[in-house]
Amino acid sequence: MGDESVISPKDRFLTVYGRKPVLEALDDAALEVDKVILADTVRGPNAAEIQRAAKAAGVPVRRASAHRVKVLAGNGKQDQGVLADVVAPRMRSLHAALSDGRSPSRVLLLDGITTPANVGMILRTATAAGLEGVVVPRRGVAALDPMVVKASAGVAFRAPVLRCGSAREAAEMLTEAGYGLYALGASARASVFDVELPQRAAFVLGGETNGVSAEVGELVTEWVSIPMPGEVESLNVSAAAAVLSFELVRRAGG
């Protein structure tokens, strides 16, 4: 798993790319932008506009090759030669969250959720519900990019995101830290409204098509379902996350 004591930039920043998202981030007084990276191929009015906005916000601008910008953005088609690293004050590694003596009592674990709209809405809902952690693995889940930020209506910047390599890695770390691991499954007999929960619990939300992965499923403590008396087979994963999140609010007396 590498040296977990080294803080990766991906555990500190949300990277937005493209002219408009970068300008919006620079113009938002509530956000702290660490730096802007501008491809050396971007010249003229477009470069001047970005540089003016960055100077007004007191943010340094670095030049890099167009290839480097594409690599950092992770999206070669839409970066437009510019990206910004926005400080996400509540984002940290899962390892750090489990090591500081104040580990969250309730967390969500995203497993194979690849639609940015779903990831964004889950981050918005979980933050609204006051959950202390949403584990977003770097592999197998939609990247935290402008589409996720847009779907969250900007809440992604201040969501309690916990990063790790994969959902399996997260499940192992949470289990070793004493968490009960609960997975949502439509056919589960236990209801999410009735199941008894331990002091610390993690809830796995599976992907849109395949649900919870087999490698995470084998570590699950108990499968739970959302009772649906109506003739509908399942809920969208972000809707299921909303039901779960606010059931946890209800249990906490919120």
Can you describe this structure?
By secondary structure, the protein is an alpha/beta fold. The chain has 2 domains: 9-87, Ribosomal protein L30/S12 (60s Ribosomal Protein L30, Chain: A, 2-Layer Sandwich), CATH 3.30.1330.30; 92-253, SPOUT methyltransferase, trefoil knot domain (Alpha/beta knot, 3-Layer(aba) Sandwich), CATH 3.40.1280. It has an 8-stranded parallel β-sheet with strand order 5-8-7-6-11-9-12-10, sandwiched between helices. It has helices spanning 19-27, 44-57, 66-73, 94-99, 116-128, 146-151, 167-176, 214-217, 237-251; strands at residues 13-17, 33-39, 61-64, 82-87, 92-93, 106-111, 133-137, 161-164, 180-184, 190-191, 201-206, 222-225. The protein is elongated. Residues 15-92 form the RNA 2-O ribose methyltransferase substrate binding domain. This is RNA methyltransferase. Keywords: Methyltransferase, Transferase.
Question: How would you summarize what this structure contains?
Answer:
By secondary structure, this protein is an alpha/beta fold. 33% of the residues lie in helices and 22% in strands. It has helices spanning 19-27, 44-57, 66-73, 94-99, 116-128, 146-151, 167-176, 214-217, 237-251, and strands at residues 13-17, 33-39, 61-64, 82-87, 92-93, 106-111, 133-137, 161-164, 180-184, 190-191, 201-206, 222-225.
